[in-house]
Amino acid sequence: MKTGLDGKRALVLGASKGLGFGIAQGLVEEGARVAIASRAMEGSKAAADKIGRGAIPLICDTGKSEQIDALAKDAVSALGGVDILVLNSGGPPPGKAQGVASEQWRTSFDAMFVNLVRLADHLLPGMIERKFGRIISVISSGVIQPIPNLAISNAIRPALVGWGKTLASEVASSGVTVNAIAPGRIATDRLKQLDAANAERTGRSIEDVAAAARAGIPAGRYGEIEEFGAAAVFLASEKASFVTGSILRVDGGQISCT
Q1: What protein family is recorded (predicted)?
Q2: What are 203-228's pLDDT values in tens digits?
Q3: Residue 66: which residues within 8 A CB-CB, separation 6 or more?
């Protein structure tokens, strides 16, 4: 399949490792020019060196609005514009819904929603003017089926979906699509941390926790970041121009509800 991504310009958040890295790598392989952002320039540079092919390292902590504003300017300056925006924020700490401090809710909401929307608002006018744009939000399967002990994520990420679906209807006639990808259990450092937290909470070994998790996935394994990246590449492609306001699951069949 010809993706039509050769020469397109992409900005991928949280791309120093994990899901963001997989997406950035996939876009570069299809000929896109990619700027990758993470909270530490050291991590961004290491990822850019690993990806190669002119990947551009940038820095941004999505919890800081001033860095969001600077990132928009830096990405446009480095690439000449942004055609594809991948909104991929870090996950909040695990925990129950009860007893979360108000300040924690506010901090997480800013980093996982408010500032991502702020970045999109910076870059949308250029997409609309060029009659081409792709906004892809990396969410969580918890949006569809809440994940135990991930209350903050379960509560906040649906806001990004609601915003995206509303925006999709507003900009579809301008050639801009807005979609989300819901990862299941993809083999990343974040998943290792969650397995370790679950093991500590339940008194089981990490190996037992991981084995039980894999047993609950029809595919019988954790996904790979390259598989997740391929889904994002499709949504970014010209072939996906009639797909908007949607959630694409990449979960090995794990999510059982609609």
Answers
A1: Belongs to the short-chain dehydrogenases/reductases (SDR) family.
A2: 999 888 888 889 889 999 999 999 99
A3: none
